[in-house]
Amino acid sequence: MQKILKSVICSFALTVMITGCTPVTAQRGNMLQEYQLQEVVIGESSRSDVLRLLGSPTTQSTFNNDVWYYIGQRTEKRGILDAAVVDENIIMVSFNNQGIVETIENVSEDRINIPYARDKTPTHGNELTFIQQLLGNVGRFNAPQGSPTDL
After folding, report:
1. pLDDT tens per residue across span 97-130
2. C-alpha distances in angstroms, 95 versus 50, 67, 92?
3. Looking at residue 100, what DSSP letter applies?
4. Residue 9: enclosing H or E segment and its boundaries?
5. E-strand stretches of the chain
6. Contact 70, 90 (CB under 8 A)
7. Across-strand partners of 33?
8. Could you give the CA distance from residue 59 to residue 85 in angstroms, rounded to a whole number?
């Protein structure tokens, strides 16, 4: 009986360890496929055609509303480690003054990888310990109604 119980516990522990190391993948944004981009014809497709074929853009250029960006990212996270970018796709679609597609470019290669800052913003105020937070209001009572402090 104990041998069976040991084998069940060991197999359960092994299963937990294996599944704990399985990566968690996530997709954010719009990962456009090559066949979708081939449906957009340069010099012929309009803004409404691009919206119908590719969907809404992730963002527009800050200084030029005739430039749309489709940004997609696939990340993979293992255990407690930070998520790593596995695949990234940034497509720029630019239109002329008549709203017809001028260029479609993959600008993923030109992107600069900027690391996250792990610093904390300093805040002002009291830094209380756990005990101070727990016992902070002990001894503080409201003044009774009708006392001289109510005037």
Report:
1. 999 999 999 887 777 666 666 677 777 777 778 8
2. 10, 6, 10
3. B
4. helix 2-20
5. 24-29, 59-60, 67-77, 84-95, 101-106
6. yes
7. none
8. 20
Instruction: State the pTM of this model.
Output: 0.60
Q: Which token pair is 40?
A: 């957009």
Q: Where are the alpha helices (DSSP H) in 21-100?
A: 34-39, 47-54
What does the alpha-carbon distance between residue 73 and residue 110 come to, in Å, rounded to a whole number?
15
Read off the amino acid at residue 39.
E
CA distance 106 to 88: 10
Q: How far is residue 50's CA from residue 76's CA, in Å, rounded to a whole number? A: 30
One-letter amino acid identity for 20?
Answer: G
Q: What is the SS3 assignment for 28?
A: strand
Rounded distance between C-alpha atoms, residue 87 and residue 30, angstroms: 12
Give the residue carrying structure tokens 């200084």.
Answer: 63
Domain ranges of the chain: 22-108
Q: Look at phi and psi of residue 31 and say left if phi exceeds 0, alpha if psi is from -120 to 50, else beta.
A: beta
* pLDDT surpassing 90 at residue 95: yes
Best CA proximity match to 91, nearest among 67, 107, 115: 107
